[in-house]
Amino acid sequence: MSKRLIVAIDGPAGAGKSTLARRVALRVGAVYIDTGAMYRAIALWAIRTGIPLDDSHRLEALAKNASIEFVAGNDRLLLNGEDVTEAIRTPEVASAASEVAAVAAVRRAMVDIQREIAARASVVMEGRDIGTVVFPDADVKIFLDANSEIRAQRRADELAEKKIPFDLDRLRQQIEERDSRDRNRAASPLLQAQDATYLDSSRLTPIEVEEEILRIIRTKTSNGKALVH
Question: pTM for the full model?
């Protein structure tokens, strides 16, 4: 493609951002960057090394020294050379990631990595603050949402497929707690960018959401039709 395209998809946990960002990236020929996975990787490292989640200085050191790589074509994530794709998807790591992501210094380190990736290629990037902080000038900004019960059920379905034990009520509670932390943290809180398009996925299938996002991309970019395969 002649021009780098940056698509920012923000929203709360379980809204379907990862699934949709991955599919849309494939359709427009861009690199998919799972920013949530980056914070999960730091959280996993902190848990493994026994670093308290309220120790911001040691968490900052982890973030600055972490080697985080996305393997093109298969959505694998490497932390310091180790494939941690499955290890970062447990409820424990998910909850810890929200606390890690609230540390301003950790976010700055992750944003540096994210911007480096986007400087080299077109990207579809999802997270909590992509359209407001990481890429305020993104070509396309979408705020993807869904009610908490549906988000908890989606997360339960993912864990069931991977045969990871879960409690649905606890998952819902964790999601609501993460929503509160994400929206009220001092560093880059979860907010809808003023120029973002709001999209509620509660009653839509993944395919329907995907097509709607592609329609938005076509509308927002002069050459959007040429980008979508």
Answer: 0.74
